[in-house]
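Example 3.2
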Amino acid sequence: MFIKIIKYGIALIVCAFGYTTSAQVVQVNPRSDWKYVRSQELTLQENSLYQFEVPADAAYDYLLNLTIKEANVETFISVTDLQGKPISKHSASQKLEQLEFNVPASGTYKISILYKGSEDDDGTTPITVNLIRRPTIN
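Structure, written as tokens:
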């Protein structure tokens, strides 16, 4: 009888530990509200500039992520309004593969991507551009 109580006690402790562990994992994801705005596969040419316009809302934070399929590639990202005023808070000469930004007012904004490959590169590189957003967290 005493052995059965010990077995049930150990089983109860293991179940309780498993329950608390899974509850902690579920609670830890602050970026769960991110939603895709745009996703596109591109083949960029050496020293070329790729630009596209996107509607943006001031009530959202945005994240632009580049997935580059080759090594030794430098990418530069900038976000401007349609008059050319910079929106992102980084230097345009800063190499980036990911840029988080928010806009001061709802409207249309221009995203520019410049690519520079290594010297032994064939002059093109395939990349994936993902733009996602979530409600602004204050």
